Amino acid sequence: VDAFRVNVIHARQQVRSPVTNIARTSFFHVKRSNIWLAAVTKQNVNAAMVFEFLYKMCDVMTAYFGKISEENIKNNFVLIYELLDEILDFGYPQNSETGALKTFITQQGIKSQHQTKEEQSQITSQVTGQIGWRREGIKYRRNELFLDVLESVNLLMSPQGQVLSAHVSGRVVMKSYLSGMPECKFGMNDKIVIEKQGKGTADETGKRSGKQSIAIDDCTFHQCVRLSKFDSERSISFIPPDGEFELMRYRTTKDIILPFRVIPLVREVGRTKLEVKVVIKSNFKPSLLAQKIEVRIPTPLNTSGVQVICMKGKAKYKASENAIVWKIKRMAGMKESQISAEIELLPTNDKKKWARPPISMNFEVPFAPSGLKVRYLKVFEPKLNYSDHDVIKWVRYIGRSGIYETRC
Amino acid sequence: MTDSKYFTTTKESALFPDVVNCMQTDNLELKKLVYLYLMNYAKSQPDMAIMAVNTFVKDCEDPNPLIRALAVRTMGCIRVDKITEYLCEPLRKCLKDEDPYVRKTAAVCVAKLHDINAQLVEDQGFLDTLKDLISDSNPMVVANAVAALSEIAESHPSSNLLDLNPQSINKLLTALNECTEWGQIFILDCLANYTPKDDREAQSICERVTPRLSHANSAVVLSAVKVLMKFMEMLSKDLDYYGTLLKKLAPPLVTLLSAEPELQYVALRNINLIVQKRPEILKHEMKVFFVKYNDPIYVKLEKLDIMIRLASQANIAQVLAELKEYATEVDVDFVRKAVRAIGRCAIKVEQSAERCVSTLLDLIQTKVNYVVQEAIVVIKDIFRKYPNKYESVIATLCENLDSLDEPEARAAMIWIVGEYAERIDNADELLESFLEGFHDESTQVQLQLLTAIVKLFLKKPTETQELVQQVLSLATQDSDNPDLRDRGYIYWRLLSTDPVAAKEVVLAEKPLISEETDLIEPTLLDELICYIGTLASVYHKPPSAFVEGGRGVVHKSLPPRTASSESTESPETAPAGAPSGEQPDVIPTQGDLLGDLLNLDLGPPVSGPPLATTSVQMGAVDLLGGGLDSLIGGPNFVAPPAAAVPANLGASMGSGLSDLFDLTSGVGTLSGSYVVPKAVWLPAMKAKGLEISGTFTRQVGSISMDLQLTNKALQVMTDFAIQFNRNSFGLAPAAPLQVHAPLSPNQTVEISLPLNTVGSVMKMEPLNNLQVAVKNNIDVFYFSTLYPLHILFVEDGKMDRQMFLATWKDIPNENEAQFQIRDCPLNAEAVSSRLQGSNIFTVAKRNVEAQDMLYQSLKLTNGIWVLAELRIQPGNPSFTLSLKCRAPEVSQHVYQAYETILKN
Predict the structure, then answer these.
(1) For chain A, which terminal residue's Cβ has fewer other Cβ atoms within 10 angstroms, N or C?
(2) ipTM, 2 decimals?
(3) CA distance B307 to chain A (A)
């Protein structure tokens, strides 16, 4: 441990690898703000598993006591021990589903004699059972579920406006408040499924929906989804855990609607002056509104002063971040806005050229840039008598910027 | 609740009895904490811990399954021998518990117990119970049983614990669908160790594993990829399914790149392996490896590596544009690698060479020092690949001559000047300017300069005669470096005896430079493919390189292709990347080879003294070619033969060269460790006329005892045999002593007896004492001898710097021993090269207050590391040696080894 501290944490230089081997012992680390979570091994373990576990550990801790901070860790010392005891045994991860863990590790402390025998065996069967993420006997007066389709658009564009790489990584997050052990089936406008159905049913529907269908490059699912069924029939069926969870993640690269276009223009006027002009164009239906738009224009390190003129929103030069930050609260579709700035430079004798970091952008739009649509989510509960119609369902689409950069 | 803080302090073991009393509480939480306390302190007070046993046994029968499991779990973690005895009964019960939660905990407990006392586990028959658990109805129990069995099996490579058969595999596959993500990882890792009987079975397993590729946990995905990659070996390539599988592998791998950076890093390291093994999987996915501005540096470097591997004619334009962008970034390492990557692209994709060169020229114009230097190094390689094509750029290069301060860049530049001496008008002036500071240059530059000037002389003999003489005398008379001297002599002799021959040798056509660099050897690659997802794949090293020696590490290998075995004869279907077309990839590029030769003093210990570079390369390539042919010719294709080549190459090249060298100048060879001259071990008087003298040698990783038996008696001697007493390092004869013919009077035989270090161990006094018994038809004779410790220094004894530092700090100061080595006339460089010959590696070198400090590491055959600091004061023939080692008793002998090596 000391060696790790000396060699990694206090090393002057930037971390060169998340795995370090010191004296035949390997250290894995993950950093959360200023807390280092490290795992140690002397053997050839599954490295991916170790990192996944460290992340899960973070998730579990966050679920129990909120933010991972020095304070919180000190206060919840015992709880962390208890949790570790349960999720890890002799280095083997056991069960890291917060839902299941919460049934028997609680913050109030449980008295073992108060539990009936059935309850106990129920806990254990649940922890080890096939459906380790949901306990039985959940009841809600109102059966509700919320679906959030969250997408982040990643873009890398050349100064000439050529798309170098673009992809959408999306997540479908579900919040379920359903009674019993409901069986759910989720459908979206996945190209493969629709084409399959298109062949089976009438041509007309195939054509109609075919236009809007999207090609998903790859997707991964929460462990509640029956993967073998997805592989054979491409249907997504599952028994959801109670509360919020991430149903699936997916990635698409084709036919992405890029909500914004950034057109930069940088001109060096002499050695001590730079002129920057940036135009952003919104590229979606005029009826929709984008929010929280922020454009970050990097400036050289030797900037002495900046003058900005912008048509809309507010722009400020932040010396500490070496960037001009331009914020716009709202912007409708098919609009255009512009900012121009003059940057005064201090003359330097530094030969090194300015690296010209890319212009980055943040925004939020109320649609899914990949074009993904939820077609249905059916709920079946064989034992309790409520049907699909009784469930109140909400669907929301949010498109956010991931790493949305334009080189200049 | 409040006693929690006690865990963090160490003095609290005094409270042991009181805490143990609390064990009987009904409060689950308190119980857990008490158990935790026990785990930490039982070791310090084993007698007290016995008090707790009763409670444990009682808790194991508690009606609450959680408590039963807790008790079993805790008992397994208490590493006190006495407790383990009591543990067996409850454990047996728990393994058959009705509650799955208890069973799964008990399964892991068996693994814990095995770690403490393996014999006990076997005697108690827990292993069989564990095997039964594989067929348990509860998936989590199965998963844990599998995990426990795998761990146990790993420490017992011989025992056939996990004898997987189609039935058990089927059960595992069923459980795979139902258990938690972690369980899935255990099962997949275990599946990867299984070798299916035929391609049909492999295919069906693959089919059932593929759905795992869309799991959200990337460890599951990687483990699934591992299984698929491994079993794909068995599928024949013309199968439709093979193609589908390849297609299915790409998207999940790409998705891994959207995970957190640390996972990305693991994934990238693995993709790097996969791309080398099966480039077709990701050939269309170039774009995802483009570097993002705020990727952590380790991710950036890995992405760059993969980009180069994927570069092809189709995507080269894109790649180049990206690389150019990267070359303007700030991180020095990254920029260097990007520049180097441009050069690699030029060499790999011929059509792009032109563009690459112009890009490099643009970069040189930036005048950023490290960019320029790196660019020159790669341009040298481009010149090698495409001779006489891009000379126009030489002028630009020459402009930057003065800014070069790194040896590699200087050497590259000198090479270029020498090579194109006839087109550079002022080549002699340029080289002369380098010559002024000849002695301050590094060896690499000196050697290159020598060669370049000789080339220049051969091209323009009239003007440069003076220059050549100057450099030759510098190299031969004023230099301490044997390599430089020897090369100087060779040129001298060549030039003075037969200038035509010299021309042929020095200016000979150079063999082609190969396209791929840094490839991992095929066998290692195959082994690493079996370790996808694990640490080995992250380090790109086999596990034995970083796992503590005690545990036997099983070498895994990919299964041979069994299906339709007739067709495997043809090269297309030959397994594991063995097709002959790929063979040359194993050879390092000529540039590297050249570098190796230039660096001989730092290179592998087996290589002989250098000749003129060009001829060496030719020889080497020829030798290699021959070796390869004969290896490929063998009918056994199970293990790809190529990996054996580099090792042989070194040896054969070394010996071939040294033979050659013996002819020309008569200087002895340097190959292998230093050999002590033979000494008489057993005088004839004591052994009824048999005289034995001998010595120990170490060559290319094997130790042998060279014996000379002389019959000084009057009768014939036959039936020789030899045996060693147990000794400190387990030295034992690896083969019986073979004296083929009877030894007649006054006859002498020389025998080399191979030794190994797997014999039984007993500490001797002195440590390196070896007692030997030799038998012949007359009698049995005993003698003892001291073996020099350096025969035990193994070839992989080089520690990396970081580790050296950490270990040095880690070893307590009282283990440090200091010695004086007197009257040694060598300088630091010569010392380190000589020590390297005997597997003492210089990890780092520092110059403090006009003293050279050499930091060295060496490893003994039994895995003991010895770290050394050697202080050399120029002009003073006494060195100070400080040794640090966890086993301080070896220091004295290591010092003796140093002394023998350095003084002879």
Answers:
(1) N
(2) 0.72
(3) 14
